Known about the structure:
By secondary structure, the chain is an alpha+beta fold. The chain has one domain (41-208). It contains three helices and ten strands; from the N terminus they run E-E-H-E-E-E-E-H-E-H-E-E-E. The chain is globular, with a radius of gyration of 17 Å. The protein starts with 39 loop residues before the first strand and ends with a strand.
Amino acid sequence: MRKWWKKTQAEPETETDPWDGDPVSDAPQFRGDYEGEGVWYECGNCDAIHELDEAPSYRGLIEDLCKSVSASTQAAYDQFGIGSGEGRWDVIPDEGLFKFTNADGRMCIAPYGVVSSWNDQTHSWLWAWAMPEGWISPTALTVCQALKARADGEGDWDPVQYGTLFVNEHEAWHLTNLAAWVNDMPMVYRAKVNEMNWHYFAIGKLTWAN
């Protein structure tokens, strides 16, 4: 079971998400025919949402790479003590670095990229490459741009071709794993950036900073 490290202190002053999405309620607020399963996309022609019929080759790739990325993520968490449930995270956008500070004060750093913003109420997924200019730093955007360029060449990576998707948490990790795999980044991570939105990250090789 993958252990997700939770930030326990104040939100960082950088890389916050202005995309507030829909108002929070006790129940999910799904759109159209989406009921919390599958990968759906927002159609630019009719403004409706439709379910994607993913190519078997794409689903097979996802299944294979998720095993690899999940294993390398857990190994990094174990090595650097990230799965303890204590500590904090920060980003240093100008340097393109993601920083973890453990409960004992030890810090580790790694290059990172923002993959998406995901709303846990509506299941709206906004790829970083589709975010308005200025939402995230140019350095943090390169990972998702590389994913989009790769998808353009593959031809059957349909979920990457639409800026806005509707996916559950399980599918969100699949998409994040794909971004990490394309960029040869061994670790994935997510952090809550406001009341309803999470940022998903691809993280490079961690090294101790102190």
